[in-house]
Amino acid sequence: MQSPVLIAGLGIISAIGNNTSENITALENGIAGMGDIIYLNSIHRQKIPVAEVKMSNEELAGRSGLSSQISRTALLGTIAAEEAFNDSGIRGLANTRIGFVSANTVGGMDKTEQFFSEFLTNPQKGRLRDVVHHECGSITEIIAEKLGISNFVTTISTACSSSANAIIYAARLIKNNILDAVVAGGADALTKFTLNGFNTLMILDSDACKPFDENRKGLNLGEGAAYVVLVSGSLIAKLKKDPYCKLSGYCNANDAFHQTASSPEGEGSFLAMQGALKNSGLNPRDIDYINLHGTGTQNNDISEGIAIKRLFGPVYPKMSSTKSFTGHTLGASGSVEAVLSALSVKHGMVYPNLRFDTPMQGLPFAPETKFSKNEPIEHVLSNSFGFGGNCSSLIFSKN
Amino acid sequence: MAAYIRATANISAQNTFEGYQALSEPIAYTNNRLSCVEPDYKEFIDPKMLRRMSRIIKMGVTAAMKCLQEANIKMPDAIITGTAYGCMDDTGTFLSKMIEFNEEMLSPTAFIQSTHNTVGAQIALMLQCHNYNNTFVHRGFSFESALIDAKMLLHEGTANNVLVGGLDEITGYSHVILSRFNIYRSGPVSNINLFKTSSKGTIAGEGATFFLLSGDSSVNNYARLDAIHTFYKPSNIAEIEQNISAFLTVNSIGIDEIDLVITGRNGDAKGDAIYQQLNNSVFKDLPAANYKHLCGEYPTASSFALWLAANILKTGTVHPVLLEKHKDEKEIKRILVYNHYQNTHHSLYLVSAC
Predict the structure, then answer these.
(1) Which residue does chain A place closest to B136, by CA atoms?
(2) Is B313 helix (H, G, I), strand (E, B) or coil?
(3) Selection from A56, A13, A14, A19 nearest residue A33 by Cα
(4) Which positions of A are annotated as active-site residues?
(5) In this complex, which of A116, A124, A196 lies closest to B103 when CB atoms are compared?
(6) DSSP label at A320?
(7) Distance (Å) from the C-alpha of residue B112 to the closest C-alpha of chain A?
(8) ipTM above 0.90, yes or no
(9) Which fold has domain B3-214?
(10) Is there a contact between B117 and A390 if contact means CB atoms under 8 Å apart?
């Protein structure tokens, strides 16, 4: 019904690199980002591996132009959003309605934790500047201000599918002619709150995770931020620039099974992937590569795997979980993987699923274990599923 | 495509869960924290599920279920929530235990229910609804972003019945912390007389309000939601006036065609000065109504205003407690809702009788 929405800019910061080219290099060389906790002040240091961005808050502040006292989520988000916005070539364009749609799961929780440890001893204690950016939307506004975007600003939080939903909402704002371009994605820094939360659920691997492996033991939490710049067809014509690809389809569905667990038959995942294919007018056979949600937990991987079997069998596209590099970046994971998927379409890259050893019982397919490029890739499917049954899938296609 | 308000349900510091008529006898408060009048949840939620739910989840799910009952819709095509703070009680519980027990011996329950999408997720779970499900968490734009999403879904034709709600809670922790920012009145304060004294600060509020937006016209609908517009951090009053005028122009409405304006006055002298200036310019000669003395101030309070607009258009009645100024009795056919949250998040809704 409308012209396609195109991707004109990319930006990413993760445990495997501080920008797009560093991330590609790490993926090409098979270098994963998880290891001992360095920056997070937690008793789980040296016990639970995580995928941290390899910079202190002071270093991130230097790069982002923000104070080192600001939430790490805002620091990470600003760096990745600036990269994407500058890459797009739309910055400063006159008569262009530009929006910012960002996602995160716990706002400025890293600073709230600091506030709370004092506040709990005395309600008049704790520095207010540490809690003023607690709200998810407040993090978005700090980043928006650095970008100079005020036309349309909003925040989405649907657990681990948050930034995939930010990208979907952004695309629809363009298709509905509310905006011409949107910087969309998400950011999440590691916090004690999330690390301990996932730890109580007993779904963290004490070693580097093994997504889609029969002997997988859980996920590794990661941190990062990533943004894509979505533009309308008429705007791309004005930019003297080839887009990376187009966002050809998307779907948001709900598993409606359990607050945290995925259904055994993967109903929500199945509906999200099927809906994205329908939305793009493609068939399962058209998909060349799936960037899996692939957290490495028992529950997610079998549920997602069965949904793929139901939808794609008996012929399967290449697939892998890049969480074996970046860890699970929660609210940022959908956009981290959207950036990698857009690069996959642009450069014909397929990423390896690190540490894969034994195929899962009951699944007649296995993920890719080697990096390859210049492959004939037309369409890439990216999955993001979360607590609350929120399941979203995106499809990126050659323009 | 038009968006019709087919049904609505509201839990607030007033007896609004019983219906709009409750505002003929408004509840008076004398403190700066207005807590919701909670309904009997057992009528709407299985007691086994109820035990595990925090207050905001109970309020959100119950308002959603009542709204669907009234609409006679068993399975909405989409569930969208807007909440600035999310599930703060569960967040505060997990956070304080984590600090108290130094990251050891924690139970996952509060963490599991602390995510901002919990209410939307619980509604989907209870209905076994696999359809579109989204949650917006952007301060004073949380509910507005959800409404824009709902309108887009109807326009795209991907949904015909959308359940959309705005909700936020006050908790013990949050009230103490927010009070330290000096945003609330100190000392005893009468909510009913909130606008009679001009001073610094407002009164804290909370609530859960849901709507069933439908693409289908029906004699049973409350009203039609014609348009929404948001604007962020306007630099001065002229920019606010320009946004309001442009909104009306884009929707081909003259200001004289507005029968009532509902504004977000909250008793804080500085914030209310904006509404007063508008009363002397773009809103001059317009009948005006207020609501935050009834529900208190919170980031998704504009959902209460939309509930009010829908009910006024359906019943043709404006309860005296709402009125700031009015002209001779005139049938109300079209309402403009204008709200600003801390002079940062400004929103406009245009709502018409069906």
Answers:
(1) A156
(2) helix
(3) A14
(4) 160, 293, 328
(5) A196
(6) E
(7) 7
(8) yes
(9) Peroxisomal Thiolase; Chain A, domain 1 (3.40.47)
(10) yes
